[in-house]
Amino acid sequence: MIYVLLFLSVFIGYFLALFFHRRGITQSAILLAFSGAFLLSVTLFELLPEVFENPSKELGLLIMSGILLQIVLDFFSKGAEHGHVHLPAETFQFPWMLFISLSIHSLIEGVPAASNDSMLVGIMVHKVPIALILTLFFIRARLGTARILIFLLLFAAMTPLGSFISSELEVINTYKTQINALAIGVLLHVSTTILFESSRDHKFNLAKLTAIVIGIVVAYFV
Known about the structure:
By secondary structure, the chain is mostly helical. It is built from nine helices and no strands.
């Protein structure tokens, strides 16, 4: 069921993108702000205390390594993990580097989702707007329905694959705390970047603030 839910979350985003596109809706910032707040809150409420049951400087180093890893992945994905695709649509080809960087990101976040229901929900909520924004970009770039679906199928499989590997490989279980610490860094970078980018030019936006507060409250009670 974990694998199915993680897989389907991407296609919820896909169908929402079709709905938005057909009705000329171009803004998904409120959904993105909610998902960023929810993901950040779940990471802080659930995963961080779990990892720091036995605190050490090594875990802090791994969290910083996760942040640095996500910065590198952002260079290749052009910000897709936090909902902003900055690739030139007019010269767009099949996005191999985007796919590889998103796959690494998704594999890592699949590890904590395998054993923590709250993290599972948080990552699902994160996947929906990312898939939505990717699909809208691909449609504008005229990538073609078949190629969009192939990309999304492969992308959707990566987080469940990370969860499967985490559950089935003993070596992953041996170093699960360390991998979760790395995942915390990745998720902290992604979620905080979403929140920072949801308030461009530092303008007050009541709708986005409300979405962020709702995301935090819902995450607390999940």
